[in-house]
Amino acid sequence: PQRYTPAEIEPKWQARWDADPSLYAADAHDSGKPKYYCLEMLPYPSGALHIGHVRNYAIGDALARFMWMRGHNVLHPMGWDAFGLPAENAALKNNVPPREWTLSNIASMKKQFQRLGMGFDWSKEVTTCLPDYYRWNQWLFLKMFERGLAYRKKSKVNWCPQCATVLANEQVIQGRCWRHDETVVEQRDLTQWFLRITKYADELLTGLDKLEGWPEKVRTMQRNWIGRSEGTNVDFMVANAPASASNGSKITVFTTRVDTIFGATSIQLAPEHAVAKAFAAEDPRLAEEIEALLLQQQKARETDELGAIEKHGVPTGRFAVNPFNGERVPIWVANYILADYGTGAIMSVPAHDERDFEFATKYNLPIKRVIAPNLDTDDLPLPYLAEEEAVLIDSGEWSGEACLEAQDKMAAFVETGSFGSKTVTYRLKDWGVSRQRYWGTPIPMVYCEACGADEPIPVPESQLPILLPEQIAITQEGGSPLGRVPEFVNTTCPKCGGPARRETDTMDTFVDSSWYFYRYTDPHNDTAPFDSAKVNYWFPIDQYIGGVEHAILHLIYSRFWTKVMRDLGLIVNDEPAERLFTQGMVIKDGAKMSKSKGNVVSPDLMIDRYGADATRMYALFAAPPDRDLDWQEEGVAGISRFLGKIFRLTTKFAQLEGGEAGPADAALLRKLHQTIAKVTHDFSGRWHFNTSISSIMILVNEITANEAAIDAGQVTAATVKSTLRSLIQMIAPFAPFLAAELWETLGEQGIVFRHPWPESDAALAREDEISIPVQVNGKLANVIKLPSESTDEEVKAAALLDEKVAARIAGKTIVKVVYVPGKLVNLVVK
Ligand code: ANZ
Ligand code: ZN
Ligand code: ZN
């Protein structure tokens, strides 16, 4: 007999599929079928797919194929997140131009995808480093600029010395570069382009509540990242401001606890606060001390230990007046106050804030209690942090008020007196998108001396795309590489026609990935980023699948970009994706795979040894898709043997005829329909494909168990063949090559992926007998078997009569008999 040989089957089908691109192509958007947009995050073209990719795409491909078989019009596209630093590093190392390196990587990874049998609609392919894509980055950037959503400002930026470029806040992980674990990120002052994501902060936050199809952990991470905080800004006048300081006379603090203002015993300024600077200008010693505080803060920021920073401060010798009681409090500068949060100044309330308490204790500042659980209790240990159900004490006319109400009333008092206002502060900062790199989208702006050198002038739309020059020497010098290409830099001013210079920074590559999935719907459009009608048909994405490492960066930028495009009138959806699934990591021997650990598993090697089907199926079988998966080659071999069994049985029985109906018919059909129900169910929810595949294994065992009966003609050929037929349909999402092959073996017409998914027949699936565990006081006593049509009363009676159960309850009183239908009986006895 023939043996299962993936090395023959797989290339044969791969060649057929590659020759017929329509097979996996989405229908036009006027198709009568319900649409389904199944999307996996696009890879960076590093040169080779790794095993984590295989898992991600095996999940998406299984889902896409299932939805095809369920009669949907499926969009399942793929593309390349093709700009970015590695191409420049490769250019430095091997002297290949970034474009060439990238495109050749794309070519080889596309082959890998095909070898894996991924059913992508390649007619929709998007490659972000090509001008037909990035020109729309530029176009959208211009639209944002027109609306004040793209702007330039000088600011402190995160700088990775290794990347020699700026990083967005989101790209700094525990004070280190997201690409360079070992490199501490520095702070630098640079003029940069920003996108005003903060304008959408509230909508990005409230929108999360509606994203019920997203994992709660991702929503929580985004909520914390946005970090909305309601509070009050309160002005404190400086009592003895230096005469020379124009802005040295007022300090606005941001507080979430204005109800504690009578307990403010000092003002603390961030080292970079303007008032601190004004004071320092008068006092060189103070200036030096403040500089030291700033350095400590930057160090802590770099290593992300800001929360735990050892607190230091210096008194400025000046005082501010509390607007609520006229009290004078000393003004200090402290290293734990951030310049870029709130107003960069706080009122310090040591009795009711932990950090202030620590600071005041260290420097012997007064600690004044103004909040208590009630008016009679004022001896609780400090700091006392409660606000709900607590009241104000020693707070003048506000004493006795409940904290939460006092917050409202006192904020209103501040507003009435015009010495501050209610306010909302966000942790979210505008998105810095300038990169001093070559391999990215050129920012479509120019600067003209004649028109005002500091005013960026947008390039007219008609001049797009601003092409990235291809011939460029990549060097290790700092600064933007494009600045060293005179043909690129020198241009004419769109305003006055005189000589002008182009912007030489390029865009953060997260711009590219913020909207690529819209372009998939209409990738060859050369008059617009896409046809809105097409996007409106396909969006929102029905299911987005990717790694949880993108929970903040990519997924928040994509949501922002969606809202901007909606406000530009290009689309109508508020959110890009209805549902999000984040798969677990693939690990090896309990550790993350990495070159340095030498535990990287190559997908190609797995395919060579066991075939693509077994590799993919193992990636789905070895763990629930949302958990980490410990890759074990022996497991892949096991799946390959399992597929071999299916191959053998199908080949053996494909031509089966005749046979007498016997008990095995019902048994086989029962198992078959139970399996269909289980696998279908697993596709609708959390995709526990591991359990789907286990149940398919049980079905295959059932066939094997009946093999002798089939051989002896005691089962009808119809039963055997319909079982095999549905079996092949059920493995099709997981092992598409073998499914296609065996579909042909069975003599079925057409392509298995376009035949309707089998339906489970509940009557055929029903067991004759049910097995019910019986517990006594929660402990298993026995498992009883009953006819499946037994009533609840019959089950309870049978449980009490069972010998083992009876022995357990002998001499005791039965308090309660609980029956969970079909599941279990629990007897409560005393
Ligand atoms: C007085 C006070 C009393 C405060 C009290 C808290 C408790 P969230 O919730 O994170 O927004 N704060 C304000 N700006 C700061 C800055 N730039 N650097 C460091 N700390 C700052 O925290 C808001 C609280 O953090 C503010 O309310 C302020 O301290 C502090 F019993 O004001 B609070
Ligand atoms: Zn870096
Ligand atoms: Zn000009």
From TrEMBL:
Keywords in alphabetical order: Aminoacyl-tRNA synthetase, ATP-binding, Cytoplasm, Ligase, Nucleotide-binding, Protein biosynthesis
Alphabetical GO biological process terms: leucyl-tRNA aminoacylation
InterPro entries: aa-tRNA-synth_I_CS, aa-tRNA-synth_Ia, Leu-tRNA-ligase, Leu_tRNA-synth_edit, M/V/L/I-tRNA-synth_anticd-bd, Methionyl/Leucyl_tRNA_Synth, Rossmann-like_a/b/a_fold, tRNAsynth_Ia_anticodon-bd
Positions of ATP binding: 595
Keyword Transmembrane helix (UniProt): no
Keyword set includes Cell membrane: no
The gene coding this protein: leuS
SUPFAM superfamilies from the UniProt entry: Anticodon-binding domain of a subclass of class I aminoacyl-tRNA synthetases, Nucleotidylyl transferase, ValRS/IleRS/LeuRS editing domain
GO molecular function: aminoacyl-tRNA deacylase activity; ATP binding; leucine-tRNA ligase activity
Lineage: Bacteria, Pseudomonadati, Acidobacteriota, Terriglobia, Terriglobales
UniProt protein name: Leucine--tRNA ligase
HAMAP family: Leu_tRNA_synth_B
EC number: 6.1.1.4
Organism: Granulicella tundricola (strain ATCC BAA-1859 / DSM 23138 / MP5ACTX9)
